[in-house]
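A reminder from the course coordinator: this example appears on the midterm review sheet, so study it carefully.

Given structure:
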């Protein structure tokens, strides 16, 4: 038997296309007659447009039109339910009125034969405003807080009054942006009433549903194509206003229109991780057992949509706490709508909870790992459901041994390396194993190769590769003879490429589909008098290296090619899928991790330098260790950015983001991440899904920021509760 493809560190099957420039991203597709649209954005953060002068812009050579609310058609904007529902409220309705809701809002688009002509025309559009001062931070809400989300078990107030050890602190996280390498871009083309869109998206079906609702056309009249995505981290989970701009402009000029956001426009034209203020009060008994926790959370959203993250889950289920009260308020501000960003909700909540656990450990005089182990639950405290697997104790054991935790001096500010203060911190990571219905189509052709399709995406984790591996094993084919296709709304439906659900959902659908196709071929062989397998039991037939044969008699069998040639069939085809069952309600299914950070702080300058970051994960079955390692390293690096560097600053006078560029919005570089590593516990979780995976992309960023913040405290004795941790906080 050949070695299974799953579990092997296979290099990306699409890697050559990417490194040679042959992979086609959204802005690189070719549609005959394509012209260019450049968006004009508002220069005030709130108010109304009083005038738009487009005469000079429209008079430029090559300019086809300038569209604004003054001449744009009224669009239906029907309500819709996409694969992932948008936040409650109302879409930003592009060019439908004179209101300005945030700085950087699209107010016009110049369309021209060339990009240069469109850019020049856009620069000549003159917009006048009746401006108002916007509310851009949590201390100055634009309106009343939205209806809060509440959760309660037990009597937290009474338990806090009786607690032996108690802490009460507020943790703050600033706005963080995705900043993928590929900017968001859309090419739109109308053929009569049918719309084709090439888009940077993590959800071709959601973009299709959104555009159908905006233009009031059937969903089957929209096709969305997105074979390659150059990073997204959640920013591609919605169809942002520029997608509508491209489609609207294309319909107006009756030509395909390409719209590419500038790097600056990315900061307001797509979403971001919202500013969050998280007040947490915790109490414990003399043994360090948690008795109560009160979570009071406030986070920003826009005035026109109520975006909320899953900020309450970790506070309900991470530790055994009999008395818990949570209140989560979204605060409407004059900003664009936030959105999901890697580890949404959990990465934010973990910073507060895991820093608070560290503070509680310090107050109680208990080792931070020991405190967490004393509060390990036997079942999910929030739901009462049993865990499918929860191997945090093992994660801590492996990580502590690897990092040398027991050798550290626990006293803050006790370890030095010359001018550098050395500290080590730890935090728990957890993220729900997302699953959703998915379908796939597989075709086995007479040349012995297979093609498998599903309308999922690949923004970098390696979906092409991992699905190819699953399909190859199910069909008994070498990886080189399997091709996986994705990123087209005409393919079988798939859930969002986000929330760590792709492998569990689409992977399970691919496995089911290819199992059906293999069984179809097996049934044809055992029913065919001309086959060496005629009369055999299907249960005794296996597939290996493109050949069906008896498990106990490998010499008795035939290849797929021989079977198809003899029965005169050019191909076999099967469609299958996966739908989660009642395990969603019966079980608590999460991926877990223990994150360790060792840092150094220059005593005089306050500079923080990462020395080591290690994550140890209970993430179920690892389909491809090489891809998993790439995912984990990316998540850990993202956590370093969250902890030490990333945030935007809004000018309170007009809402302008003053560092909306990659020169002033800092992200980690190679020099910032000298030693980053991840370890995965062996095992699988067949209760979570048929292929035993848990999802990895989200959990690997959760817990990194608090581990670093806790290490900073251990190094310096100074507790920093605001992210990012800046030099000013340590001087």
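Designed residues:
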């Amino acid at each position: 038997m050949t070695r299974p493809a799953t579990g092997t560190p296979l290099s990306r099957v699409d890697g050559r296309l990417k490194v040679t420039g042959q992979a086609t991203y959204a802005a690189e597709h070719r549609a005959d007659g394509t012209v260019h649209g450049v968006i004009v954005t508002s220069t005030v953060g709130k108010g109304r447009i009083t005038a738009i002068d487009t005469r000079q812009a429209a008079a430029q050579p090559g300019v086809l039109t300038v569209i604004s609310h003054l001449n744009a058609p009224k669009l239906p904007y029907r309500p819709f339910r996409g694969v992932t529902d948008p936040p409650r409220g109302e879409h930003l309705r592009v060019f439908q009125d004179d209101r300005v809701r945030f700085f950087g809002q699209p107010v016009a688009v110049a369309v021209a034969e060339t990009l240069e002509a469109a850019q020049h025309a856009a620069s000549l559009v003159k917009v006048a405003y009746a401006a108002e001062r916007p509310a851009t931070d949590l201390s100055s809400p634009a309106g009343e807080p939205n209806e809060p989300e509440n959760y309660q078990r037990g009597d937290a107030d009474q338990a806090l009054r009786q607690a032996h050890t108690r802490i009460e602190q507020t943790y703050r996280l600033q706005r963080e942006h995705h900043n993928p390498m590929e900017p968001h871009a859309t090419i739109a083309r109308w053929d009569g009433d049918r719309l084709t869109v090439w888009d940077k998206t993590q959800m071709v079906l959601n973009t299709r549903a959104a555009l159908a609702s905006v233009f009031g056309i059937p969903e089957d009249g929209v096709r969305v194509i997105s074979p390659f995505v150059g990073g997204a981290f959640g920013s591609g989970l919605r169809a942002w206003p520029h997608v509508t701009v491209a489609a609207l402009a294309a319909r107006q000029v009756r030509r395909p229109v390409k719209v590419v956001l500038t790097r600056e426009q990315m900061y307001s034209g797509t979403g971001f991780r919202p500013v969050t203020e998280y007040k947490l009060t915790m109490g414990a008994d003399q043994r360090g057992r948690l008795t109560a926790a009160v979570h009071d959370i406030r986070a920003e959203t826009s005035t026109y949509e109520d975006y909320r993250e899953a900020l309450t889950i970790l506070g309900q289920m991470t530790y055994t706490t009999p008395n818990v009260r949570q209140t989560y308020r979204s605060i409407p501000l004059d900003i664009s709508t936030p959105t999901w960003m890697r580890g949404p909700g959990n990465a934010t909540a973990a910073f507060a909870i895991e820093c608070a656990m560290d503070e509680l450990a310090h107050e109680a005089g208990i080792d931070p790992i020991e405190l967490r182990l004393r509060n390990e639950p036997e079942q999910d405290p929030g739901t009462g459901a049993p865990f499918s697997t929860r191997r945090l104790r093992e994660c801590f054991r492996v990580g502590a041994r690897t990092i040398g935790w027991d050798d550290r001096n626990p006293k803050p500010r006790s370890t030095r390396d010359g001018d550098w203060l050395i500290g080590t911190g730890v935090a728990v990571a957890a993220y729900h194993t997302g699953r959703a219905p998915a379908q796939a189509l597989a075709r086995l052709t007479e040349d012995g190769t297979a093609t498998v399709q599903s309308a999922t995406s690949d923004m970098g984790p390696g979906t092409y590769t991992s699905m190819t591996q699953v399909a190859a094993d199910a069909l008994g084919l070498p990886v080189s003879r399997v091709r996986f296709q994705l990123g087209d709304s005409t393919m079988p439906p798939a859930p969002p490429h986000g929330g760590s659900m792709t492998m569990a959902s689409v992977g399970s659908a691919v496995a089911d589909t290819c199992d059906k196709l293999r069984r179809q071929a097996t049934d044809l062989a055992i029913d065919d008098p001309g086959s060496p397998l005629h009369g055999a039991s299907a249960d005794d037939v296996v597939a290996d290296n493109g050949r069906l044969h008896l498990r106990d008699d490998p010499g008795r069998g035939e290849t797929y090619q021989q079977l198809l040639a003899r029965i005169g069939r050019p191909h076999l085809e099967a469609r299958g899928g996966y739908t989660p069952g009642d395990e969603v309600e019966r079980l608590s299914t999460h991926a877990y991790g223990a994150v360790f950070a060792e840092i150094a702080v220059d005593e005089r300058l306050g500079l923080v330098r990462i020395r080591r970051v290690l994550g140890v994960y209970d993430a179920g079955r690892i389909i491809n260790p090489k891809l998993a390692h790439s995912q984990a390293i990316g998540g850990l690096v993202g956590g370093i950015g969250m902890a030490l560097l990333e945030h935007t600053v809004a000018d309170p006078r007009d809402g302008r983001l003053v560092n909306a560029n990659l020169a002033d919005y800092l992200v980690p570089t190679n020099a910032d991440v000298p030693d980053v590593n991840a370890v995965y516990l062996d095992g699988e979780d067949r209760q979570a899904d048929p292929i035993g995976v848990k999802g990895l992309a989200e959990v690997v960023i959760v817990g990194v920021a608090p581990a670093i913040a806790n290490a900073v405290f251990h190094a310096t004795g100074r507790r920093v509760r605001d992210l990012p941790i800046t030099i000013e906080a340590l001087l």
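The first strand starts at residue 35 and ends at 41. The chain has three domains: 31-132+181-231+236-269, 276-434+585-730, 436-579.
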